[in-house]
Structures are given as C-alpha cells and as structure tokens.
Amino acid sequence: MAATGQSQPKRTVARTTCYMCACRCGIKVHLEDGRLRYIEGNRDHPVNRGVLCGKGSAGIMTAISPARLSTPLKRTGPRGSGAFEAISWEEAMRIATERLAAIRASDPGRLALYTGRDQSQSLTGHFARMFGTVNYAAHGGFCSVNMAAAGLYSLGGAFWEFGEPDWEHARLFLLFGVSEDHDSNPLKLGLGRLKERGAKILSINPVRTGYSAIADEFLAITPGTDGLLVLALIHCLLEAGRIDAQFLIRYTNAHHLVIDAPGEGGHGLIARDAAGHALCFDRASGELREAHSPGIDPALLGTFELPDGRRARPAFALLAERYADPQYAPEAVAARCGIEAATIRRIAAEIAEVAFNHPVVLDQPWTDTAGRRHAVMTGRPVAIHAMRGVSAHSNGFHTCRAIHVLQMLLGAVDTPGSWRYKSPYPKPIPGGPPPGRPRVPGGPLDAPPLGFPRGPEDLLVDAAGEALRLDRAFSWEAPLAVHGLMHMAIARAYEAGPQGIDTLFLFMSNMAWNSAMNPGETTRMLSECDAQGNYRIPFVIVADAFSSETVAYADLVLPDTTYLERYDCISLLDRPIGSAHGPADAIRIPVLRPDRAVRPFQDVLIDLAGRLGLPDFADEQGRPLYSSYADYMIRHQRRPGIGPLAGFRGADGRAIGKGEPNPRQLERYVENGSFWRHELPAEQLYFKHANRAYLAGAKAMGLIDDDAQIVLQLYCETLQRFRLAAEGHVAPRPPERLRERIARFFDPLPIWYVPLEEAMTDRATYPLHAITQRPMAMYHSWGSHNAWLRQILPENRLYLHRDLAARLGICDEDWVWVRSRSGSLRCRARTMSGVNRDTVWTWNAIGKRTGAWALAHAAPEFRRGFLLNHVISEYLPQEGGAAPQSNSDPVTGQAAWFDLTVSLEPCAAGTPDKTSPRWSANPLHVRRTAEAVR
Amino acid sequence: MSTLPERPQGAKRLGLVIDLDTCVGCHACAVNCKEWNTGGEAGILPDYDKYGPEPDGVWFNRIHSYETDAGGCSRTVNFPRSCLHCENPLCVTVCPTGASYKRAEDGIVLVDTDKCIGCQLCAWACPYGARELDEKAGVMRKCTLCVDRIYNESLPQEERVPACVASCPARARHFGDLADPDSEVSKLVKERGGADLLPGLGYQPTNKYLPPRRATIPTAPAKPAASGATGIGAALLGLLDRALSR
Residues of B with CB below 8 A from A788's CB? Predict the structure, then answer.
C-alpha cells in the first residue's frame, strides 16, 4: 500500500445535486485541501438514497475536462472555422445587451432562445416571457413531449418526471421503450426492488440491453408498433370483460355522453347542461344527470337522447366498439408488431390475472372528493413505465394515450401497485395555461411561452392560420407542441433568412451535432450567407461549459461553469424532484471556485435581464433587482408567496409551498443536504386525483389552484375541438393543406398508424428500422470528454440480428453502408440475438466531430464513432408541390427520431478504416489579447 | 514464492455476492471503485492517453455484457468482474517477492506495491483477469475490497462497505462475511444458489454470483377468440349489465 503523507489534508464534505445527467441525485462531494477527492450518493436524498451511477461517479473527471471553456469568445473567422478571440466578460455582456436591446425595441420575437437539457426552464422561460418573445423552448420537443403531452392531457401527470411505478406493491411491471437514462438511478433502484420482491418485469423494446436484459420476459417489438400492441391488449381485456368499470365511472370520463351529430359543430363533444357540467345517463333513475353526481348508476353503453333531441353515447361505448373490432385482435396485429398472437393473449391474461385476482389492499382509510370515506385503499398492481422508444415516433402521442387508456381500463392509475403521480402532480388537465402571447406589441407575454392549448382558439397563428412561432409550435402543424420544436429551430431560421429572427441564443444544447437531425445540413444552414454576404441566421450566441461541436458556430460564446461551481435550482416551477411520497425540490451549491473566466449561465441571464430592464428583473427605474441567481432563488416571487424554492419559506423558514421569501432559505437548504421534501400523510398517498385531503393540501401548498376532482380523460375532447375546426364546423380553420391531416390525427380516442416517415418511404428499398439506445455510462454527448467514461465506450457499432447479418453476408466488425432516403453512412457492424429481426441500432451520441471536445484528432470517437443522425432528415419527403412537413408527431411536434428506415450492405473490400461522412477538423483557435486576459 | 497464511479459527472470509439477476450493467460500481481507490490508500489508478486515440487505464472492476443462448433461450447477462479473493489464490503463491499476500484475518488478497516488481506472474496465474499492471508505476493493481473503507472508523458504520456496493444503483452487490453461515450474504447464497466462478480450477473463490432467474405469472390458458367475432362481446356486456354506483 502506498504510504500516507505526513500532514493530514483538510477534509470537507459538501452536499449538493449531481448534474452528470438529468436525474438530479443528491451527492456528497468530498474535498481534500479544496480539491475534489470523491463523489458519492447522499443516503438521505429522496432521489437516489445513497446510490450513484457511473456518470455521477465520474464527475471528478468532468470537473477537470480539457474541453471546459475558459473565457468569453468573439468569432474572428468564418462561422464553423473555430477561430475566435478571447474577450472580457464586460465586452461580452455589452455585445449581448446591445444586440438584444435593439431586437426588443423593434420586434422581441426576433430573439429565439432555445435551451438544452437544463434544469432552469422556469428562469429561462420567464426571461423569454418578460423579453416578449414567443420563440422559446427547451429540449423536450426532441425528447419526450409525446409522453408528457399525452399524459398531461389524459391523466394530469405523465411517465418519468411526473409519475413513477409503485415499486413496493407492483406485481407486474411493463417497461415500454425505455432507454437507460430516463430515469437512471430511481429506475434501477426500483427494478432492484421488484426483483427482490419477485415481481415480473416485462420489457417491450426492440433491443435487449440494460434494463431489458434483466427483464423476466422480453418482447422484441417492431419499432413504432407499441400502440398497436397496447390496443390489442385492450381488445383482449374488452373481449374477456376484464376491466374496472367502477374505477371508470368514478375517476374517468368514460360515462360522459358524447354528442353524436355528424356534420354538426357539436359532434364528438361532451354533452353538457346549462351550467357546463358534463352529462351522463343514470340507469337507476332513467334520466340524464350531471356526470359527477355521487351515487348514480351511469350507463357505459347505449345511445341516449339529449334534451335538444340530439343523440349521445357514453365515451366508453365508442371506445369499446372501436377496439372490439377484429382489426385490433392479436392475430391481426401479430405480424406487424413482431410478436406472436398467443403471446399477446397470454400477456393480456397475465395483466388481468394480476389486476383483478391479486388486488393490493392497504389498510388505510381515505376520503374521496365526493366526501365518501373508504376503509381501505384497493389497487391494481400492474405498473407501467414508458419513455423515449414510445415517444420518439410520429405516432407516439397516440401510443402514449393508448397506454394511459389501458391504465384507466384496469383502474391502475395512482392506486396501490400501479403507476403513481409524483407530487406536485396531478394537475388539472391539461396542466397549465395556454401558451403566452404579447398583450401589447413589444410587451411581455401574458403567460409563459410554452403552454397548453385547450382548442384552436389558443393556437399561435396569424389570420391565414400560419405559425407565429419560428419552430411552428402551437400552429396547425403541431397544435399541442407543449415543449416546442427545438429540432426545427435552425432549419426554420435558415428558411426565413434575415427577415425571420435576428439572434439565435442557445444554451447547453449541441444543436450543430447530436441534437440535430442531419448535422451536416444543420451546420451548412448555420454557416451559409445570402447574396450580400450576410449570414442567413444573423447572430448566434452559444452559452455552454464545454467546447461542443456547436460552439464553433457561435458569434459570441458565453462560457458557463461546471455543475460543481454554481448555484442551481431544481424547482417545483420547472422539473422538480418530487415523488409519489410528496413534493420536493433541490439546489446546487458552488463546491469549487472556478479557475477560469467563466460565469454561471443563470447569473449571466439575470445580469442580461437587468441590463435590458426587463420587468420582474429590473425595477421601474431600470435598476437590476437581483445580484445573482442565488439572490433570485431567494427573493423572486412568481406569484405572492410562491418562488423558485418551495421549502423553508416565510420569515421563520417554517412555511412550505407558499410563504414570504426567507433571507436564510439557502442556508436552510444547505443544512438539509441541498434539498427539501414534504412527506405526505399516508391517507394522501394514492388516488391523488380524487383524494380530498391530498387535493386540499396541494392547494394549500400552492401546487394547484383548484382542489376539485381531476377527472381522467379516457376520451380527449380537446382533440375533437381541433378536428371540428378542420372539418369547418368551428373557427378558426386550419389552412387548406392541413385540414385532412388535423381531421385524421386529432382523434379523441387513441389510434394507431404507420409512422409518417415510414409510410412515405419505399420499404422495399429501405426495409430495416434504425434506432439508437442510450449507454448507461454516458448522457448524450456529455461523456466523451470524460477520461473515465470514454474508456468504457470510445466508439460505437451498428448492431443487427444474427439472422439478418447472415442473410446480408455481414460478420462482426465488418464495415457496412447504412443508407436512408436522406443520406448514407459507413460504420462497423456487430451481430447479436437480442434485437428485433428487422431493426438495426447503435449507441447514441458517441460519434464526435474531429476537433471538438478537446480530444486528439485520432480519437476513436472521430475515427470509428458515428451518429445515426447523419441519415435522418428533419423534413418528411415532399409531397406534390407543397413544402415538406417536419419529421415530427402531427399532434405534438415531437421529433420522430425512431421513424427512420434504412438499407444495409457490406462495404466493398479496401474501404478506409474510418466512419463516413466526415468533416474537416475545426478545433477552437483562440487568440488572446492583453485586454481580455486582464 | 509466497505462502498462504494459516487461517485462524473463526477468521472471516470477506467478499462480495453479485446478483446477475439484477445487474443492469450500468458500470456504476466500476467507476465508483476507480474514483474511490484512485485517491485512496490503493494509490493512483492510472489512465493512459486520456484524451487521445487509445484511452485506457487501470480498473479494479470491469463490466462485461454478453449474450448466452443456453437451452435455446437467448438472454443478455451483465457480468461484473473483479478479484474474487480466492481461498486458494495462485496469484499469491506464484509471487516471487511476497508482494501478493492473503490476509489471515479476513481473507482479503492484497498487493504490497513496495515489494512488487511488476513481473506479472500473478496476472498470468489469475484465471479471472482480476489483476492489471500499472504501467506508470510498474506494479500490479487489484481490488482491495476497499480495505480502507470497510475498517475505516471515520466513516459511519453503514458506509463501511466497498465503494462498488455502496454505489450500486440496482443494489445487485452485497458485502459480508461468507465464513459466517448466518450472515446476510451467506443466506443469500444459500437461498439463491450462489455459485463459484470456474469452480473446476480449484481456486475456491470467496465472491459468489447469484444466477439469473425468471418470475412468471401463472394464468389459465388463453382462450382463442371466436373467429370473425365483431362488436362488443358477451363477457363485457355481462360485466356492464351489473349496477354500478358512482
């Protein structure tokens, strides 16, 4: 053993929050003489309870990465060349302030602010709102908005951030399309617990890696067919009469009467009385009644006459008829899903067996919103989790809706053993106000820029029905784009040219590389000039901590700190760390002092907002209100008593949720391990959507404004409103070219369709599906500059089934061409058994552009790493003379990464030992002047 | 040649029990091990060519994921590999300088780097590939079972476990005394059929691996659908015929 030194180093431990991925685990950072020694999980922390993944454990190497930016930069060479000059922070702030002030004085919408996988959207969104631009979004549009939107419009919660399985009581766990990073440690802890308890884990995924590897059963489903499988399971449950009718009438809108008047404006809407209450047919009295009346015996089948003479049918009747159809029988879907019919029937039987023959009964009284006291909590121990594999298809919104309908039919929503809401969810459906718009030209928006349309009237469109936003979110092209369409921002800015936006402001997002569909085209758009020699996208500001591929395309670079060098706020106003056990939030604290001329981005944004005199960031005299993000976290109030942090509020620090700002709030967080949580009493832990005590408590804490029952939306009336507009029954109408599309995809009950790109592609030429998976030791592009993590996965392969490989004459390590309708790439192949036979896949974001991330030019990430992105297009194929649609879900605008279809062939002998396509190296060349150094 | 110590009566056999039914192959244990040990008493675990063409380094623990097709049933197994602290460690007995040794009191196999000459005989002798050469220092490195954690009185009792066990997010790793039949790890091995790796070689590893298993849900055989049935079936009609109370 090495001898220990003579003098003992000074050891300290700081408790803060990890940021090596989006999981937000609590960590204990050990320092010796101020230097990082060791990072471990915080055992007291609600997210990770002491464990820590490989990424979090490698934080030390990210903190010393040579890819860290060290000074503000001003571009000196052509965009993309990497030539910059180091400038002072004062000059950087002057450039940004002058540019943004000029934009704001003319047309604030000419600023487009897009942020990546950050956790400060309540701040960045508020900045955009006060600036007055609708052109704001974070990364959700290319990540999981299908899942979030489907959940929030159906349950008032969603998978991943807004819900979790009941690990302690589930007996059957269905895991749909989950990559290993969402979420990371909580899902691993949960899977371990299920294993310990002997519950069955069923993974439905084209690829068997990671979590799927330990599943008790693995179904290698064909990509994009999950929705069809779920509808077939629903078919089986309906056929067998195995549904929870009592749950449906108490907690969903299954019994609400849907107007049956084809060709009229009210068709497909819920029948309501004069006071606006939904109606149902009460079998006990033989009369129409308010649907929420307690004690009635609502009909779920049948046709009834409304007082105005129109006919109406219970929503459930429409659903049952649709999915009873033989087109949803397992035998009809088996070939397409790649799963045998008998297996589908068996899975349906297992679901029914667990749900109805093994209910979980907890000896815990509770009171529902009708005032009924229940002696026990009875649950259906079938839990479901779904993530990106479901979300990243252009049929993902309806697939997620189908899963939620399955949960509702089983009565498996927030019951013991099922999927549960993570506080502060559930929220009243659909989850928030409609998207904001300027009340007066040039003024702040009347609501946050990302919101929840309730119908066509909430869209951001002009008189002709065309998009007001750059990315066309909340237009007829993507009406429920509640997270925006970040993957289209650069393409749309390029299309519009200098008449469109002036400044593209990107934070922490690698939009010129792995976050772009088609990085080659994206970098061309960023660097192309018009006839006058001006860039088509006039000005680009990039804020990032590391020299990603995107930095080279900035005109101004604002260098951020690492996560160990700043304050951060994981807020209930954004993406909090609450669990089914109660709301929680957290902070990051500076553990290290930056040794470079970098500033926390949030401090910079608040500084910028102050200099611009934005409302809420500056007083009436234009003086900045906040000195830093930490100051803002303590003193900012979004509404009276509600600020970024919910814990330790009030003068005495004892208020939770709502309360006066507490000047000592951050100290209290630090004392508590940099997090706060509120443990819900046992009677509030389930049925939160209809649990009187929970809803009242949530209202008191300011989590929700209304403590009425949140009625689960088996039937999504909002969708029907858009369809009626498309059919011309209500105004405003979509433009002619989009009417058929809206009418087709805005079905109030889940539908399944072949993903859009796949349907428009010649499958004889491109017969294979192509998708990516997330390596567990990497988070997107964040791992490759980490000296430990890159040892685990320095290059990637294209994986395919052994049978397919044999048919194509491909062996392990052979070089192959992957071709799609939009491009070709060359990479190395590897064969396996645990993959759908018609699917090829690779690890996400391992390939890098030569010169980026401070890696040597011969690094394997450049030579043999590759991105599948190079053969994906952000546009669908053109049809007729019309401009092509974006490659997105037609409801939410979610980037349809996984709709890709390709062909595969071995490379000819003599192929260079390198992946293709390749670009010239563009490492950063920074000229340093005396002034900047000073 | 080094000799093995006499094992005193009641001596511990400290080791790991690794659950292959639960390991998701996330590399948390491997990275956290490297992080703890590179700054601890084990000394630096070097990295070579950190940002260059051939990134590599010394790890005490590495994860291998592979597919098996045993019994016609394909599955993926994630397999963490580290020193098994064998009862009969050839890596110790081949050591020409006495640098490799096995502790009498708890069975941990360690390397005294002051005596190690980096001849790599031990690495050749170990069939499990658990030893790695530190090319910078010219000495062998291997898992210490976090001997500087498990007896470290400055740590709270619950943290006195190897870093790999503390960090494992799926809680697939367990630490304890395998000489004590009543310890939690011994009970786990008994209940779950914990097995030795390559038992035929005779090294008698202390660490044990718990085999993968499969949970099932028995159901009645699924009835085939009536052919060509359309509309809502009798079962559902029957269910919905019953009175409900909202």
Answer: 31, 34-35, 47, 57
Between CA A839 and CA A804 the distance in angstroms is 9
Q: Report yes or no: A275 at the B interface, CB cutoff 8 Å.
A: no
Among B31, B220, B229, beta carbon nearest to A54: B31
d(CA A924, CA A80): 9
* pTM for the whole structure: 0.97
> Does residue A539 surpass a pLDDT of 70?
yes
How many Å apart are CA A259 and CA A279, to the nearest integer? 10
Phi and psi of A259, rounded to 5°? -65, 130
Asked if A777's CB is within 8 angstroms of B27's CB, the reply is: yes
Task: Let me know: does A398 contact A408? Beta carbons within 8 Å.
Answer: no
A210 reaches B (C-beta below 8 A) = yes
pLDDT at A6 > cutoff 70:
no
Residue A15: the pLDDT is: 98
Q: What percent of chain A shows pLDDT beyond 90?
A: 92
> Residue A178: pLDDT band by 50, 70, 90 thresholds?
confident
The residue among B76, B144, B136 whose CA lies nearest residue B110 is B144
CB pairs under 8 A between A and B: 260
Helix and strand totals (H; E) in chain A: 27, 35
| Torsion angle (degrees, nearest 10) of CA A190, A192, A193, A196 | 160
Domains of chain A: 9-57 (2.20.25.90), 73-147+436-559 (3.40.50.740), 159-424+712-729 (3.40.228.10), 756-906 (2.40.40.20)
Which residue of B43, B57, B234 is in closest CB contact with A2? B43
B27: left (phi over 0), alpha (psi -120 to 50) or beta: left
pLDDT of residue A2: 44
pLDDT score of B110 more than 60: yes
Rg of the Cα trace of chain B?
24
Q: Read off φ and ψ for residue A183, nearest 5 degrees.
A: -95, 180
- Which of A36, A68, A188, A790 should one mutate to test binding to chain B, selecting the residue with the greatest count of B CBs within 10 A? A188
| Residue B191, burial from CB neighbour count under 10 angstroms (0-12, 13-18, 19+) | exposed
Chain B nearest-CA distance from A49, in A, is 9
Residue of B20, B35, B36, B63 to mutate when probing chain A, most A C-beta within 10 A: B35
Burial of A122 (0-12, 13-18, 19+ CB in 10 A): buried
Q: At residue B145, does pLDDT exceed 60?
A: yes
Domains, in order of start, for chain B = 14-88+143-210 (3.30.70.20)
Query: What average pLDDT score do residues A402-422 get?
Result: 98
Q: What pLDDT score was predicted for residue A181?
A: 72
Average pLDDT over every residue of B4-10: 90
Q: Which of B27, B56, B219 sits opposite A350 (nearest CB)?
A: B219
Q: How confident is the model at residue B224 (pLDDT cuts 50, 70, 90)?
A: low
What ipTM was predicted for this assembly? 0.96
Query: pLDDT at position A161, please?
Result: 84
B111 backbone φψ class: left, alpha, beta (φ>0; ψ -120 to 50): beta
Provide the mean pLDDT of chain A: 95
Query: Which chain B residues are Cβ-neighbours of A353 within 8 angstroms?
Result: 217-219
pLDDT on residue A1: 41
Measuring CA to CA, which residue among A290, A314, A311, A310 is closest to residue A302? A314
Interchain proximity A240–B229, CB inside 8 Å: no
A245 close contact with B: CB closer than 8 A: yes
What is each CA distance from A926 to A75, A76, A169, A368, A899, in whole angstroms? 9, 9, 57, 64, 40
* CB < 8 Å to B65, chain A: 209, 213
Tell me the pLDDT tens digit for each residue of A117-149.
778 999 999 999 999 999 999 999 888 999 999
